[in-house]
Every structure is written in C-alpha cells, then in structure tokens.
Amino acid sequence: MEKKGARREAILEILHDRGGLREGVSKEVHQETGVPEADIYGVGTFYHLLSDPDAGVRVCQGLSCKLADSDGLKARFDAEGKKSCFTACLGRCDMAPAFWDPDDEPPLVECALSPSSDAHAIDLAAADGTGYEALARATERGPDWVIDELEASGLTGRGGAGFPAHIKWRAVRNQAETERYVVLNADEGEPGTFKDREVILRRPHLVVEGLAIAAFALEAREIYVYVRGEFGRVKRELAAAIERARELGVLDDSVAWHLVDGHGAYICGEETALLEALEGRRGMPRMKPPFPVEKGFRGKPTLIQNVESIACVPAILNRGGTWFQEAGRTQPGSKLYCMSGHVVRPGVYEAPMGVTMAELLEMAGGVVGTLKAFSPGGASSGFLPADQIDVAMDFAALPKVGSMLGSAGVVVLNDTVDMVEAALNQAVFFEDESCGQCAPCRIGTQILRQMLERYLASGRDASTLEIVDDVSWGMCEASICGLGQAAALPLTSAMKHFPREFGVGTG
Ligand SMILES: Cc1cc2nc3c(=O)[nH]c(=O)nc-3n(C[C@H](O)[C@H](O)[C@H](O)COP(=O)(O)O)c2cc1C
Ligand code: SF4
Q1: Which atom number of ligand 2 is nearest to the Cα of residue 442?
Q2: Is 479 in the pocket of ligand 2 (CB under 6 A)?
Q3: What is the band of 127 on the pLDDT scale with cuts at 50, 70, 90?
Q4: How far does the centroid of ligand 2 lie from the alpha carbon of residue 84, in Å?
Q5: Which of 89, 231, 267, 270 has the most ligand 1 atoms within 8 A of CB, as the residue to mutate?
Q6: Tens of pLDDT along 133-186?
C-alpha cells in the first residue's frame, strides 16, 4: 500500500540518477520516496533504459538503419568486444546505421533542417531569434487574441493525430479548474521521425517562446517538457535556451519549467502514457474520455502539444493566422518532413503541407536506386507503392489511399528491399513496444511477428499468413490506443501492394 505523502512522481528520476534498476536500488528508492519497493521495481522494469542499464551501446533496429546494415554494425561491435544490444528506432534515421552510446554522443550532422526552396514555406529559421516578439504581442493583446489567431491559422497537431490546436487551447482555457498544465511532447519515438530533435537543436527559442505563449494563454503556472531519454544533447540545448530567455528577462517568473527525461519506451509518446510516466507509473495509455484538456496531468486540465506544433506558434502570432493558413497547399501551414532510407540526402525538409512524395524525393536529392515503396508517416503509416508518389502528403489525402501522414517520418525503399523483411522489421518493433495492457495488441502483435517468421522459415508458404486479416481486424477494432490500432498496417499494406512477395496473386 502506498503511504500518504509518498513521492511517486520522483521515482523515475531517482531511478535514473542511480543508474537504473541495479541491485538494491529499488529498496533505496522505496526508502527515499515511500512508494512500495515492488511497485518501484514494477515501474522501473517497464522502461528499457532503466531495466537494462548495462546493455552497452544501443544499435538502432529502425527500418532506415536496418537498410543501412545496422546488423553489420552490431557484428562489428561484437568483433571488437564492445558490449552492445539492439534497440528500437533511435530518431537518428538520417545518420543510419545509428547507435547510441550515452558516454559518447555522435557529433551533429551539418544542418539537416533544410529550408525548402518553395517561397510559400515558412522559414522557421527566419522566425527564430531571441527577440520574443510573439510573446510580447501575446501579452499585449491577450489570450483570446492568441487562440483566435491559432484558429485562423488552421494549425493541426504535428505529433501524429493532426488535431486542431485551437480546440485544445480553448478547451483548457475554458475549464473552471485553475490548476492547469502545459506539457511538451518531445519523446519523438515513431520510427523514421527525427524532426522534433532538429527543431530543438536548431531553433530552441521557437519552442521556448511557443511554450511561454501557451502558459500565458492558458494561465498555466507549470510547464513540463518530456524529452526522449536518448536525446541528451536536445535536453541540454533546450535547458540552455530557457536559461538564455531568463537572462533576457522575457520569461515570466510565475511559471515553473521542468525538463523530464524519458526512459526508453516508445509508447510514452502517446499523450496519456506520457502523463502516466510523468506521474511515476508504467507508461500505459489511459482510456479516453476524459481527455487531457479536462483531466490530464495530476487529473487537471492539460495542454499536450508536439514540439513542431508549439514551434509554429511564434510565427503564427508574428505573421498572422491567415499567413500560416495560406502557407499550405492542400491543408494549412508548412510541415517538416523527415526523409530517410534510400535517398541521396537524408534530412528534415520543410515544405508546404500537401507537397507530393515526388517533390520530397527531389528535395532529398532523389532515390538511391529505383523506388519500390515508401512509408509516408512512420512505422504506423504502413507502406505505399512507388506509383503513389503523386499523392499529397497531408492528413486528408493519405488516409484515402490507406495510409496516414502521422509524424511525417518518410522512409524510402528501393527495389532491393524484400517487403516481407520490411514488414517483419515493423512487426518486431510493435511487439517490443506494446505496453501489454490490452489483449488484442499484446497478443496480436506477437501473432503477426510469429506468422511472418513462420512464412520465411517455411520457404514462403502463404498458408502461414491465412489469419492476418482476422488478427489485424481485432487489433484495429479493440485496442485501447493508436499503437495497437496501427500495428498491423505495415503487414497488411505490404500484402495489399506487393501480394506476390507474400505468396498471393501476381502483383
Ligand atoms: C503509439 C503512439 C505514439 C506517439 N508518439 C508521439 C511522439 O513521439 N511525439 C508526439 O508528439 N506525439 C506522439 N503521439 C501523439 C500524441 O498522443 C499526441 O496526439 C500529441 O502529442 C499531441 O500533440 P499535437 O496535437 O501537437 O500533435 C503518439 C501517439 C501514439 C498513439
Ligand atoms: S493498444 Fe497496445 S500499446 Fe496501446 S494500450 Fe493497448 S496494449 Fe498498450
């Protein structure tokens, strides 16, 4: 039983500071916080970085890294006697094959955040700076003006769901409860996605200013930033930017800023799982409703926004909502697209919302080899064939062709790629990262991976894949959160577009 006054929210940070779940640590944390030791152990084991602190160098298994021979990299580490393990996508797809050594972070790649050549795209660089004009304008004109401008801009969330930002801001603002929170989701774990990393590294003041504006407009007194555990440099950059803004006197002293480490769990990017992590629990998504705008962090109204979404706010207030609205081609605004896999120049490209895949490929220097397929928005978006390169890369057009924009983590596959292996790579990821809370996802992800392995082991006997449709239907319909709902898509979309590789038909 947890004692009254136990410091549950502190346990993950203390576990992190003690170097993870080493012998005796859960007992020490229990003594320090009053949370039962078994509970601390149970929470700690949920997070990869805490449960296995001595795993050594983590070698990325994301699809882009796999294509760039991350298996070979791991074998080299093994040959050198360097302790290493495989890990889920590290958010470094532009540096494939990537690895993460906490004691030896790789140097920054020269400015991957490349402004597009399209004159209508927002140049995030131009909007950056330490002038904080948008914050000054917001405080002068007031919260209603801020939210009206957001509404006029048509900004939708860039974290994956594409939900209109102004609706969330207004919903939090309209709550009778005055204890409110702003939470920044910087957990960036969707395989193929690395834009939030670049935004914070290259334009940290946009993020600080956007958050300060949100806290002002919603009258929140605390801001929490949840930063992916493997993004040490990102966290340091953001902390330095907050410090600099304080020195400049532009941040209101009445607002407290908290930078919180993630601990290696993809599911904590899901907003309610993230809240569970902030509250010192296993990152298991909550049932919605109630939505975080009503009952979020500590049960209080909470705005949760993605890094890219928040970084758009200063430009919207400086240049006007209408300007942002018109910057998009098919939907409002510009968008950061992450290009990796078989492209000449992997990186983050800013383009008008609705740019086509063909144009993005051109920006990234073209395909290495011959295009076969692409994943438009991270692992959750499945695969599309090469003949879909003229589809608008936005939140409306991609669902019409059975995919989604998601976090715009575009992975490009050339004709050397075996789609069965590509689908298996994603299946392994989802099985590993399922929080295990609901059966359709926990069991479904396992069955999908097993079926693919049996298919390969049997010399591609299509009968091993007979129940894919039934399993994926159950996962889509009955999973609590987006992970389980999307986890079958890589396989079902690959089977649909490349049936011959799965032993069906002639495609
Ligand atoms: C499995 C899963 C993983 C997610 N991972 C992230 C993530 O890493 N970063 C993020 O901003 N949103 C992620 N999301 C979306 C969040 O739940 C949420 O919609 C988002 O943070 C809200 O911010 P936005 O409206 O600015 O996009 C994820 C959702 C799901 C279902
Ligand atoms: S769908 Fe999967 S990840 Fe989401 S709550 Fe259920 S078990 Fe957890």
Answers
A1: 7
A2: yes
A3: low
A4: 28
A5: 270
A6: 999 999 999 999 999 999 999 999 999 999 999 999 999 999 999 999 999 999
DSSP 356: B
Ligand 1 and 210: CB distance under 6 A: no
Distance of CA 481 to the CA centre of its chain: 15
CATH code of the domain made up of 57-100: 3.40.30.10
Count other Cβ atoms within 10 Å, centred on residue 4. Answer: 6
Q: Residue 374 forms beta bridges with which residues?
A: 384, 412
> Into which CATH architecture does domain 331-414 fall?
Roll (3.10)
For residue range 213-271, what is the model confidence (pLDDT) as tens digits?
A: 999 999 999 999 999 999 999 999 999 999 999 999 999 889 999 999 999 999 999 99
For the CA of 169, the nearest ligand: 1
Give 409's strand partners. Answer: 338
Query: What's the pLDDT tens digit per position in 444-467?
Result: 999 999 999 999 999 999 999 999
Mutation pick for ligand 2 pocket among 187, 288, 434 (CB with most ligand atoms within 8 Å): 434
User: What confidence score (pLDDT) does residue 173 get?
Assistant: 98
Of 1.20.1440.230, 1.20.120.450, 1.20.272.10, 3.30.300.30, which CATH number belongs to 419-502? 1.20.1440.230
Look at residues 264, 317, 279, 396 and name the one whose alpha carbon lies nearest to residue 139.
317
Q: Please work out whether the CB of residue 483 comes within 6 Å of at least one atom of ligand 2.
A: yes
Do the strands 256-261 and 222-227 form a parallel or antiparallel pair, or are they unpaired?
parallel
**8 A C-beta contact, residue 426 and residue 63:** yes
The best mutation among 266, 275, 442, 445 to test binding of ligand 2, ranked by most ligand atoms within 8 Å of the C-beta, falls on: 442
